[in-house]
Design goal:
- The chain has 128 residues and is mainly α.
- The protein has 7 helices and 2 strands.
- Strands 1-2 form a two-stranded antiparallel ribbon.
- A hairpin with a 5-residue loop joins strand 1 and strand 2.
- It is elongated and about 55 Å long.
- The termini are far apart.
Amino acid sequence: MDKRSLGKSSEDYLEAMLMLKEERGYVRSVDIAEHLGVSKPSVSIAVKKLKENGYLEMDRSGFITLTESGHEIAERIYTRHKTLTSFFEMLGVDPEIAQEDACLVEHDLSEETFSALLKHAAEIVDKK
């Protein structure tokens, strides 16, 4: 399953799992629901689908671990999120709006455009 067929929602779940793991050291379905503002049944459906597709594993205690492929996708999306947020803030956008806009853009931006944006941002930083 490539990144385009995975879908924004699944990418959001994987990204949230990575963020929670970094923040708390563990990931549970209830934490994902709280983090994303979705229902526990919605998380159960998404976790089941992601598990079936090999993106995560869940132990008997309900703790979730990303597989290598799940971690790669989550890391890519999370890196894009942080980079885009910083770039938007560098442009003078309010930090909260920059975060929201990064969420909207991070999934759909082509690799070519994202690379060009990174190059441009690096040039701006180098000129300072």
